[in-house]
Fold this protein.
Amino acid sequence: MRHQFLFAAASAVAVTGSALAAEPLPPPPPPPVFTWTGVYIGAQIGGVWGTGQFSNFTGFAPFTRTFLNTSLGGTPSGVIGGGHVGYQVQFNQWILGIEGSVDGTSLTKTVTAGFPNFLGGSTLTAESYTHIQGSIRGKLGFAWDRLMIYGTGGVAFGNFDADFQLAVFSRRFVTPFSASDDVSSTRVGWTAGGGAQYAVTPNWWVFVEYRISEFGTLRSGAFPNLPTGVFFNGSRRFQENQVQSGFSYISTCCLRRRRSQAAGRKSRFTTSRVGQRVRLTPSAFGDRSPQSGC
């Protein structure tokens, strides 16, 4: 009797051990899913130059009954750089987002011209410059895994200054004098362009971008302190191109965690049969870890 009991117990242990040994291992954790979705922040730097930018001047001198209507060329250029922040969402291979940027710039240009027939001989100097500008833009992209090309466009704004100075040195008609007008204005316009970005890691990407921006025309009133009957004013158009490269950091950890949890819940339990009983074993990868916060 005693031997029969020991034999039965040993058989039960052997059967249980064989069932446990045959129990399948829990599935491995799902691989990280790369995505362009998330909030990002970064910095950029590059070059900026004017296109189609000119100064236009009109004037009248009653002494010689001379009308002046002329334009001065000049392509301002400089360095531009700053920071940006944005948010984008990925739908299959399409990316839709919004981005805001602020840049400081050294964009400036000074031009000088002489008019021998205006007031018996005069010299005009025009200077234009801007130090701060920014934009709020929409973004539409198409991605091949970690490479994305995109178009962007929206509202641009900036503070622009234009300084005009007219100097007359001849004594033929008037006493030599110098008159100037300084105009400063915050301009709102449009900007559009495109670029490409490549994710070197799941959270960091580098990019290059080109944009053209149009801010309209800044006009001065009639110059002050001119001789009686003399009229003169000027205007300056502000249109620019910029090419910038930079980097961005995107926060996607919470999104990846939610996807991993959703995949883990599908296989939260593993099953095994011992005799006629079904065992439900919590998967090591199905439960959220207390330390899995972003």
